Amino acid sequence: MPHINLLPWREELRQQRNKEFGLTAAVGVVIMAAVVAVVHLHFKSRIMHQNDRNGFLEANIAILDKRIKEIQRLDDEKERLLARMQIIQRLQSSRPEVVHLFDELVQTLPEGVYFTRIQQKGRVLNIHGVAQSNARVSSLMRQLDSSDWLENPTLLQITAEVREASKQQQGVRMSNFQLNVSQEDPAKAASAEEK
Q: pLDDT tens digits, the chain, 195 residues: what are they?
Protein backbone atom coordinates (compact mmCIF):
# COMPACT_ATOMS: atom_id res chain seq x y z
CA MET A 1 0.00 0.00 0.00
CA PRO A 2 1.25 3.36 -0.83
CA HIS A 3 2.41 5.44 1.99
CA ILE A 4 0.71 8.82 2.24
CA ASN A 5 1.93 11.44 4.62
CA LEU A 6 -1.01 13.31 5.97
CA LEU A 7 0.96 15.52 8.38
CA PRO A 8 0.88 19.17 7.62
CA TRP A 9 4.34 19.41 6.10
CA ARG A 10 4.01 23.06 5.34
CA GLU A 11 3.40 23.85 8.97
CA GLU A 12 6.44 21.86 10.01
CA LEU A 13 8.54 23.57 7.39
CA ARG A 14 7.37 26.97 8.62
CA GLN A 15 8.15 26.05 12.24
CA GLN A 16 11.55 24.78 11.26
CA ARG A 17 12.26 27.98 9.33
CA ASN A 18 11.06 30.05 12.32
CA LYS A 19 13.40 28.10 14.57
CA GLU A 20 16.28 28.63 12.16
CA PHE A 21 15.41 32.34 11.87
CA GLY A 22 15.20 32.72 15.66
CA LEU A 23 18.49 30.89 16.05
CA THR A 24 20.11 33.06 13.35
CA ALA A 25 18.64 36.21 14.90
CA ALA A 26 19.89 35.17 18.34
CA VAL A 27 23.35 34.45 16.93
CA GLY A 28 23.25 37.85 15.10
CA VAL A 29 22.20 39.62 18.29
CA VAL A 30 24.98 37.90 20.22
CA ILE A 31 27.51 38.77 17.50
CA MET A 32 26.26 42.40 17.38
CA ALA A 33 26.40 42.63 21.16
CA ALA A 34 29.94 41.25 21.06
CA VAL A 35 30.91 43.74 18.32
CA VAL A 36 29.32 46.62 20.25
CA ALA A 37 31.06 45.48 23.43
CA VAL A 38 34.43 45.21 21.61
CA VAL A 39 33.96 48.64 19.99
CA HIS A 40 32.87 50.12 23.33
CA LEU A 41 35.86 48.59 25.13
CA HIS A 42 38.19 49.76 22.34
CA PHE A 43 36.97 53.35 22.52
CA LYS A 44 36.88 53.26 26.30
CA SER A 45 40.50 52.12 26.35
CA ARG A 46 41.41 54.86 23.84
CA ILE A 47 39.63 57.45 26.00
CA MET A 48 41.44 56.15 29.09
CA HIS A 49 44.73 56.25 27.18
CA GLN A 50 44.01 59.82 26.04
CA ASN A 51 43.05 60.81 29.59
CA ASP A 52 46.33 59.32 30.82
CA ARG A 53 48.20 61.29 28.16
CA ASN A 54 46.29 64.46 29.11
CA GLY A 55 47.15 63.88 32.77
CA PHE A 56 50.80 63.36 31.85
CA LEU A 57 50.79 66.53 29.74
CA GLU A 58 49.07 68.55 32.46
CA ALA A 59 51.60 67.35 35.03
CA ASN A 60 54.47 68.29 32.72
CA ILE A 61 52.82 71.62 31.92
CA ALA A 62 52.57 72.34 35.65
CA ILE A 63 56.26 71.47 36.03
CA LEU A 64 57.14 73.71 33.08
CA ASP A 65 54.99 76.53 34.49
CA LYS A 66 56.97 76.32 37.72
CA ARG A 67 60.20 76.40 35.73
CA ILE A 68 58.97 79.38 33.71
CA LYS A 69 58.11 81.23 36.92
CA GLU A 70 61.55 80.39 38.27
CA ILE A 71 63.14 81.60 35.02
CA GLN A 72 61.11 84.83 35.19
CA ARG A 73 62.16 85.30 38.81
CA LEU A 74 65.79 84.72 37.80
CA ASP A 75 65.40 87.16 34.88
CA ASP A 76 63.99 89.78 37.23
CA GLU A 77 66.85 89.18 39.65
CA LYS A 78 69.30 89.37 36.75
CA GLU A 79 67.78 92.72 35.67
CA ARG A 80 68.09 94.04 39.22
CA LEU A 81 71.70 92.86 39.44
CA LEU A 82 72.53 94.39 36.06
CA ALA A 83 70.96 97.66 37.15
CA ARG A 84 73.02 97.56 40.35
CA MET A 85 76.15 96.77 38.34
CA GLN A 86 75.49 99.73 36.05
CA ILE A 87 75.00 102.02 39.03
CA ILE A 88 78.22 100.74 40.57
CA GLN A 89 80.06 101.18 37.28
CA ARG A 90 78.71 104.72 36.95
CA LEU A 91 79.76 105.48 40.52
CA GLN A 92 83.19 103.98 39.90
CA SER A 93 83.62 106.01 36.73
CA SER A 94 82.36 109.17 38.42
CA ARG A 95 84.76 108.88 41.36
CA PRO A 96 87.55 110.75 39.56
CA GLU A 97 84.99 113.25 38.27
CA VAL A 98 84.58 114.76 41.73
CA VAL A 99 88.31 115.28 42.00
CA HIS A 100 88.44 116.84 38.54
CA LEU A 101 85.41 118.97 39.32
CA PHE A 102 86.90 120.41 42.51
CA ASP A 103 90.24 120.86 40.78
CA GLU A 104 88.56 122.76 37.95
CA LEU A 105 86.60 124.91 40.39
CA VAL A 106 89.82 125.84 42.18
CA GLN A 107 91.72 126.51 38.92
CA THR A 108 88.96 128.68 37.46
CA LEU A 109 88.50 130.74 40.64
CA PRO A 110 89.99 134.20 40.03
CA GLU A 111 91.48 136.30 42.81
CA GLY A 112 88.92 138.28 44.77
CA VAL A 113 86.14 135.67 44.38
CA TYR A 114 85.14 132.93 46.76
CA PHE A 115 82.31 130.44 46.84
CA THR A 116 79.86 130.27 49.72
CA ARG A 117 77.79 127.31 48.58
CA ILE A 118 77.88 124.73 45.78
CA GLN A 119 74.99 122.36 45.02
CA GLN A 120 74.88 119.69 42.33
CA LYS A 121 71.68 118.41 40.74
CA GLY A 122 72.43 115.86 38.07
CA ARG A 123 75.17 117.39 35.94
CA VAL A 124 74.35 121.02 36.81
CA LEU A 125 76.18 122.92 39.54
CA ASN A 126 74.49 125.80 41.33
CA ILE A 127 77.19 128.08 42.72
CA HIS A 128 76.67 130.88 45.24
CA GLY A 129 79.57 133.17 45.95
CA VAL A 130 80.94 136.60 46.74
CA ALA A 131 83.19 138.71 44.48
CA GLN A 132 84.94 142.02 44.98
CA SER A 133 83.37 143.36 41.76
CA ASN A 134 81.12 142.45 38.86
CA ALA A 135 84.20 142.27 36.62
CA ARG A 136 85.56 139.42 38.75
CA VAL A 137 82.27 137.53 38.32
CA SER A 138 82.62 138.01 34.54
CA SER A 139 86.19 136.73 34.74
CA LEU A 140 84.97 133.68 36.67
CA MET A 141 82.33 132.96 34.03
CA ARG A 142 84.91 133.24 31.19
CA GLN A 143 87.24 130.84 32.98
CA LEU A 144 84.40 128.40 33.68
CA ASP A 145 83.43 128.50 30.00
CA SER A 146 87.01 127.83 28.88
CA SER A 147 87.33 124.88 31.28
CA ASP A 148 87.52 121.32 29.91
CA TRP A 149 85.22 119.95 32.61
CA LEU A 150 82.67 122.76 32.89
CA GLU A 151 80.53 124.49 30.28
CA ASN A 152 77.66 126.93 29.75
CA PRO A 153 77.92 129.16 32.82
CA THR A 154 74.67 131.07 33.33
CA LEU A 155 74.44 133.97 35.73
CA LEU A 156 71.17 133.77 37.65
CA GLN A 157 71.51 136.65 40.07
CA ILE A 158 74.02 139.28 41.12
CA THR A 159 73.47 141.82 43.89
CA ALA A 160 75.77 144.44 45.28
CA GLU A 161 76.13 145.07 48.98
CA VAL A 162 78.38 147.23 51.07
CA ARG A 163 80.17 145.51 53.94
CA GLU A 164 82.00 147.18 56.73
CA ALA A 165 85.68 146.38 56.60
CA SER A 166 86.84 147.97 59.84
CA LYS A 167 86.17 151.05 61.97
CA GLN A 168 88.93 153.09 60.32
CA GLN A 169 87.98 152.22 56.69
CA GLN A 170 84.86 152.83 54.70
CA GLY A 171 82.58 149.94 53.72
CA VAL A 172 83.77 147.61 50.99
CA ARG A 173 81.47 147.04 48.01
CA MET A 174 80.94 143.28 47.39
CA SER A 175 78.86 141.43 44.80
CA ASN A 176 76.86 138.38 45.80
CA PHE A 177 76.23 136.14 42.83
CA GLN A 178 74.47 132.93 41.91
CA LEU A 179 75.21 131.04 38.73
CA ASN A 180 74.65 127.64 37.14
CA VAL A 181 77.29 125.75 35.24
CA SER A 182 77.01 122.34 33.52
CA GLN A 183 79.46 119.55 33.99
CA GLU A 184 80.81 118.19 30.71
CA ASP A 185 80.74 114.53 29.77
CA PRO A 186 83.93 112.99 31.24
CA ALA A 187 84.75 111.10 28.04
CA LYS A 188 84.50 114.32 26.06
CA ALA A 189 86.57 116.16 28.64
CA ALA A 190 89.16 113.38 28.71
CA SER A 191 89.49 113.46 24.91
CA ALA A 192 89.81 117.27 25.08
CA GLU A 193 92.58 116.88 27.69
CA GLU A 194 94.40 114.38 25.48
CA LYS A 195 94.31 116.81 22.53
A: 567 666 677 788 888 999 999 999 999 999 999 999 999 999 999 999 999 999 999 999 999 999 999 999 999 999 999 999 998 887 787 777 777 778 888 888 888 888 899 898 888 889 999 988 888 888 888 888 888 888 888 888 888 887 666 555 566 778 889 999 888 765 665 565 565
Please state whether the predicted TM-score (pTM) of the whole model is above 0.90: no
For 182, the domain range is 110-194
Other residues' Cβ atoms within 10 Å of the Cβ of residue 190: 14
Q: Pick the last residue of a domain from 75, 108, 141.
A: 108
Nearest to residue 174, comparing CAs of 127, 117, 135?
A: 135
| 1 located within any domain | no
Per-residue burial over 104-140, b = 16 or more CB atoms within 10 Å of its CB, e = otherwise: bbeebbeebbeeeeeeeeeeebebebbbbeeebbebb
Total domains present in the chain? 2
- Residues 117, 70, single domain; the answer is no
